Amino acid sequence: MPELNRFLPGTKVSHWAAKVIAARPGPLAVYGGYWAGGGSIDVIDKIAFSDDTRATLDATLSGNSDSAAGCANSRVAGYVGGGNEASRTDRIDKISFPGDGRSTLTATLNEARWALTAFASVQGGFWCMGNSANDNDAVDMLIFATETNVGMSCTMSTARYHVAGMADAERRGYVGGGYSAVTDTVRYLQFVNWSTSTLGTGLSAARANMAGMGNKGVAGYFCGGWTGSNVGTVDKYAFPDETRTTLGTGLSSGYNGPGACADDAVAGYVGGGDSFTGIDKFAFSNDSRSTLSATLSVSSYAPASFAHTAGL
Question: Is-above-0.85 flag for pTM?
């Protein structure tokens, strides 16, 4: 503690500074969910959680990213990694909160790939699986504190792509469904020791091209997807026991390749996908579904989605 005090201002200096230094206010936080890229576009749409209106950011992704993945350090920034342009990319773009400016990190994915998924813990974001030259089972970690990206020694054990991810941010991240052959398997990453395993209860049906979202400490959801045709199914996994139920009210339509994000403890949003711009909202209090009057500015197959919240 004495060493730390060397770097802290003394009481008199603090009083003097408070009188003569006025903080310059930054942009106000507008909490919301983001849909970035997908289907070879660079557009970023944002749904404001306060009133469910949609705005299209002035900022765009640094490339036309098809099937990238998104995660967020909820109060600080969202990140979009990977995707396919003229070829697979390892780039990571950063959307800074609250100003929504875009920059590109020096750090890159451990391997260029698309059709991956992402989720976040309190320490970092995780990029999982996808397709590079071949399908893979890799897990990378973007360490939020330093914005460095590392390839992890653990893997998801089975190589798949067009997978979906969600997390219980202080405990586990989950990856569901996907190709090579369409599967109902759900794998998880344990945040306490970086071990991976398979849930005893898989999806209600094998499917790929889903979206995932999590309500921290309560439940996670895998939404929509493709089984050979578009589906509107929503599977819910209760935290922490990971029991699965299928919501009686699914999506308003079959969504193939949507994006999803969550307003902590309030609602989850699922929207976009192949030739679709609609957005469904699920109230976390009772899982009831409504459909927003706002729509995405453009249909986006497999966009990267994330949220800016006041949470972790």
Answer: yes
